[in-house]
Amino acid sequence: MKKNASFIMMDSALAKSLYDTLKTLEPKSRYSDELLQGLKDLMEGEVATLMLGMTGNGEPFINGADDGIYVGALEIHPKNHKVLCDGAEVSLTPKEFDILYFLAKNKGEIFTKEQIYQAVWAEDYLMADSNIMAFIRKLRKKIEPNPDVPEYILTIWGIGYKFTDRI
Question: How many CA atoms lie within 13 A of 115 on its CB side?
Fold first, then answer.
């Protein structure tokens, strides 16, 4: 049975160590600034207690590792095929997810349509440029703030596509 809450005491040495570690590591989480401010407030005596909570349903980390990819407002979690954009879950088909994950885990690398097809489709499938283009177009509509001016999945004219390495 899951506990509702757990109260853990922390001294100033631990608070300072956590604060310094977060400042140094700069974790890829939109909540790290809030945690840093909370630890700072705790150390400065502004607050006496700091409460932490998990977003979503608080799924436990397997082996303590999060294999998610975080780029800007986009989060890609391959273990449970979940994509979040600005914290909201984005509904993708399995192939859309596979294409997005393939490009994101190889960010900055340019792939031809054929290379994307070969990486994502294990079984025989009608390979046509328009198939990959249609999937990319659908993906952009779902994850891009402005699909006509994409920030995540970029077209490299005459070659193919790449996932941005600039955000």
Answer: 11
**Pairwise CA distance, residues 124 & 152, whole Å:** 28
CATH 3.30.230.10 fits 88-163, yes or no: no
| Alpha-carbon gap, residue 138 to 141, rounded angstroms | 5
User: Domain spans of the chain?
Assistant: 12-43, 88-163
Instruction: Quote the CA–CA distance of 157 and 23 in Å, as a whole number.
Output: 39
CA 17, distance to chain mean position in Å, is 26
DSSP string of 132-147, one letter each residue: HHHHHHHHHHHH-SST
Which residue in the block uniquely carries the two structure tokens 């070969």? 118
Q: What is the pLDDT of residues 100-133, one digit of tens each?
A: 999 999 999 999 998 998 888 866 656 555 688 9
Q: 0.90 exceeded by the pTM? A: no
Q: Which residues contact 12 (CB under 8 A, 6 or more apart)?
A: 43
Q: What single-letter DSSP state applies at residue 56?
A: T
Q: How far is CA 70 from CA 18, 57, 97, 119, 157, in A?
A: 22, 19, 15, 21, 26
- Per residue in 16-43, is it b (16+ CB within 10 Å) or e — as a string? eebbeebeeeeeeeeeeeebeebbeebe
